[in-house]
Each structure stands twice: as C-alpha cells, then as structure tokens.
Amino acid sequence: MTNLPAEQTQVLLAAKPEGQLQESHFEVRHAPLPEVEEGYVLVRSLLLSQDAANRAWMQGATYKSAVEVGDVMHGYAIGEVVEARGGGFEPGDIVAGELGWQEYASMPATHLARCPDHRPLSQLMSILGIAGKTAYHGLLNVPGIEEGETLLVSAAGGSVGSIVGQIGKIKGAHVVGIAGGPEKCAWITDELGFDSCIDYKNTDVSKTIRQHCPKGVDVYFDNVGGPILQAALFAMNLKGRISCCGAVSQYDSASPQSPAGIPGLIVVKRLRMEGFIVMDFVDQDAQAEADLKQWAADGQIKVAEDIIDGIENAPKGLIGLLAGDNRGKRMIRVAAE
Amino acid sequence: MTNLPAEQTQVLLAAKPEGQLQESHFEVRHAPLPEVEEGYVLVRSLLLSQDAANRAWMQGATYKSAVEVGDVMHGYAIGEVVEARGGGFEPGDIVAGELGWQEYASMPATHLARCPDHRPLSQLMSILGIAGKTAYHGLLNVPGIEEGETLLVSAAGGSVGSIVGQIGKIKGAHVVGIAGGPEKCAWITDELGFDSCIDYKNTDVSKTIRQHCPKGVDVYFDNVGGPILQAALFAMNLKGRISCCGAVSQYDSASPQSPAGIPGLIVVKRLRMEGFIVMDFVDQDAQAEADLKQWAADGQIKVAEDIIDGIENAPKGLIGLLAGDNRGKRMIRVAAE
C-alpha cells in the first residue's frame, strides 16, 4: 500500500464552454483526500482516459449525466485500490471506473470493475479498452465489412479510427483514412497500413474523396460529423452503411451543423446510418477482446498510444485531442504503477 | 380492341421548377398516336399513378433518370394493350409500366409487366401496388415493428402512410399519424383507425409530439423529411428506428434543409436511419401481396383511393398531392376500362 499524501490534485470544470474549449474553462486545485465511507473504496488513479466524449458531456446529458460547473471533471480511469471498505477489494487491486480528473477517488465499490491481469495497463485503455472495443463492435457489429469493400474512416489517427482501419485491412477492405496534416497522414499509411489517407486540413475532402475511393464508399465509420460526414454522404455507394460513432467536429462548436442531403441521400442511395455505443455490445465483449489481443500480439494491429504525464496536463491534453493532436489513444499518466 | 383516335393528349414538362411546382411548368398538347415498331406494344392508359417521387424526378437523376424539359412527364400507369408486335401480348391484356402522362404509349414489350387478374384495377396501384408494397416492406422489412411499440407515421393520409399505420395497428403498435388539417386528422383516426393524429398545419409538431407519443417514438416512418423529421428525431427513444421512405417536404423546395442534430442524436440515442425503395424487396413481394390482399379482403385495412378523371388534370393532381390534398392513393383515370 502506498503512503497516502494529505492532499491531492483535482481538475474541476470552472465554466461551461460555449464554442472552443480553453484552459480557462478548468481549475486545477488541491484538496484533502476524501473520506472512505462504509461500502466505498479509495482508488489511486494511474491512467486517465481522454476522449472526445468528455467535451460532449459539458454540453448536457448524453448517455450519461452532464458535468456541471464546480464538478470534478468526469473521466474514466484505471487505478490501484489503496483502501477498501466493501466489495471484496483489497489494496493493490487494479480497478477501473469513473474516477474523474483527480489523483484519488472514493468510489462506491459497486461502481468499480476489476481489471484483467494484463500489462502494460495502458493497453486496457487502448486496444483492449473502450477504444478497441468501440472500433471492433462499431465496425464489425454495426455496418460490418466485406472483403473488397471500400472503408472510409475519419479521425483515422485517433484512438478508435486507428484501430477501425487496421481491422478493416485484416478483413480485406480497401481502407482510406481522413486525418489532419501530411505527417499524420503519412504515419497512418506507412505505420498503420491504411491504403491511403486524405489530409482534410490541406485538401477539400469533398473533392479528393473520389480519387482516394475510386469505387465509392461502402462503409463510412464516422467519428466527426459535420462537413466530412457530408462529403462521405455524397460519395456513398448504393446501400452504403454509415457507423455513427461520434461527432467530434460538433462537440467543440457553439453552432453544430447537420450535413446537407438528409434524408434525401439516405432515401435515394438506400443508406443505413446507425449510431451505437460500446456498452450496447457488452455480451460480445469476450470475442472482441480475444480477437483484439490476438491481432495485437501477432502484429496485425499496431497499438498506437499517446500518453501525457501529470493530471494537471489533462485540460491541455483534451484541448489538443479535440484539435486532433493525438496519435492513437490519448491518456494521462496520473501516477506510476 | 378499341377504335383508335387519330390524336391523343399528352402532358409535357415545359419548364424545370425551382421551388414550388405550378401548372405553368406543364404543357398539355395533342399529338398523333405513335408508330408501333417491331418488338413494341401500343398501350391505352387506364390509370396513371401520381407520386411525390414524380416531383423529385424533375430535380435530377434519382433511382431513375431525370425528366427533362420537352419530355412527356414520366409516370407509372396501368393500361390495356391495343396493338402488340412482340412479347406475346395480345389486345385486351392488362399491363403496367412507365407509360408516362399520355393517353397512348408505344413501349418496348420488355418494359411492360402483365398485371394479375384482379378488380378493381385501382387496387393494383393502391393496396396491391407500389403504395401497398412500399408500406409493407418499408415498415416490416426495414425497421420492423413490435407489439406495444409506438409507431409514428408522417403523410399519414397519403398513399403509403395510410397503409403503414394500418399495418402497424394489425401488428399491435400504438400508431400516431401526422397530417394536415383537422378533417384529415379526424378521417385518419376515425376511418383508418390510427390511435391519434397530429395536425401539423395547426400545431407545432415538436411541442405536441410528446402528448401523442407519451412513451416516445420507437419507429418513425418518414415520408416528409424537414422539420417533421427533426421533431421526430428529438422524440425518438433509445435504439429507435427511422424508415426513410421519402422527403416530400423537400422535393418542392429550392433550398432543402437537413434536420438539426445529425449525427449527434443518432449517436447519443443509437438510432438507425435507413432508406429503401420498394424494388429492393422484390424477392419478398409474393408474401407482401398475399398479406395485403387478405387484410384488405377481411377489412383489417381500409383501402383509401383518391381518383381524378382526365389526363389533362394530372398537373393539378400532382400539385395538390405535394400540398397534401389527397386522401390515400391518388391516381388519374385516363380512360374507362
């Protein structure tokens, strides 16, 4: 068991952002460690996940309740039990849950999940975590992908997109990414093995999409919404499928904009657009984990992780994530194991 | 065989509409009867279908090529063979095909389908025709509907919507229509048996939808797009399904408008939006026809038909259809049988 400090660092939401998220929307403060009531478990955070959805939670209730001004920022983290008053946990156990943006959290034991015995722990957040499972279920159990089909993936350098494209390659698809900047695009093709990558920061996606997808788009995995979704809609083949995973282009905007052609293009092309969240497929997680573990182990998937040290850097990390700075799964190393 | 006249009446597209369709966009003219070449069949039109899709064809290619200025308006019709030079047809045979807005058409025999032996012929356009099959497949084979679910149907007094809602009732759903005007809404509940109907011309659908659908919307059958699709999106339950059948509110507009919340609402509520056209389900037509025939015969479905006499009234008929004047399947009686 770790020696406990008197104080910890927390990051609070200081103001509701309207438009672009900035560091001034957060407050870093020091606070006493929480009391550990009966039935609760004190957890020392090790790795904090950073996700575009963190931004969406500031806008209002989504699939979870909204984060309000004065709240410790919500966030999913992996940590180590330091004191347990219920749930059969013991100091040293590795657990995961909504620990928030703080070094220590006192959580109801029922709100914690025991982590599988796997190292590095970071892979429980990337390939074997929500990112990997979101990619797996969101591609294979929503639109599906067949050999020879064209798969288009936005936010292709992100935690989910980087895995979606690699699964697409394993399944024999022609895989085209969309990402920002020539270096990132080169990394996506050269390192991750996508067939090509569209640089949305330096080209007009609606004009270049046809060069990259000469046979049109059969499956579009949408992480971004907005103008890129619109470009994809116009390039979709008849009976194309769109997996709606997220809308990162919209979360950080005061005036979200729906793509043109809804529902006209859906009718005329007989498209299917379908949203999902990873929890919808919990009964198929075992298969997902087994496949992802195997693919990572034998090198068919390169695991891309982007780890930043220190809880005080979480605001900067999220702001950068929303701007597309990250390569693969971004997380904050709150403490060494 | 009918005595053939020297001339016939045709309706041409005289100008491409931008915005609302008007009679001035059409030209009614008299023309000699066409020659009947080898392999062709001369057909005397009896019943001409009027469909919102007729308007969409003026905007450009959809699932069929666009209708251009100077063309006889495209349209699906049932007629009687008067002269046959191929295809094994004989005078008196009842056939269907893209005969257009005219009294007589000379068609390649391969472009004609023999109609089943059924009277009244109008039912081959309503309950047993494209309208009925569109309703059947578009409800049962796209989103599906379960007992106790809430089904919302726009253009509920139209050719397709009137049948969708009645199929929903047969399947045990709580069925809510959307239509224009108190008389039409009363007809939809009292005559067609919907549980309730929202009058979009006199109430704000986004505000009243919750009163009519207190448990939210599980399945929305969308014939209209636009603000009503938007209201439905906000009222959808988690994992709700939207069957995208048409977008009549958009066809007659110079500036179509996508609903807000795409893809945000699709992600957060895990919705499925899916487009279809009736031809996608041709392999399941036999089942559809058998069920629809049975339901009509035993009175579980009331067949609503709205028949206007005279090909010269086709422009007025279509304009009225786009404004929602019709009750049930609108068609033009081009000639008596």
Comma- or semicolon-separated keywords:
homodimer, 337 residues, alpha/beta, Quinone Oxidoreductase, Chain A, domain 1, Rossmann fold, 2 domains, six-stranded parallel beta sheet, globular
How would you sum up this structure, described in words?
Two copies of one chain form a homodimer. The first copy, chain A, is globular and about 60 Å long. Chain A contains ten helices and 15 strands. The termini of chain A are close together. Chain A has 337 residues and is an alpha/beta fold. In chain A, the strands form three sheets. In chain A, strands 3, 4, 5, 6, 7, 14 and 15 form a seven-stranded mixed sheet that branches. At the A-B interface, helix 8 and strand 13 of A face helix 8 and strand 13 of B. Strand 13 of chain A pairs antiparallel with strand 13 of chain B, so a sheet runs across the interface.
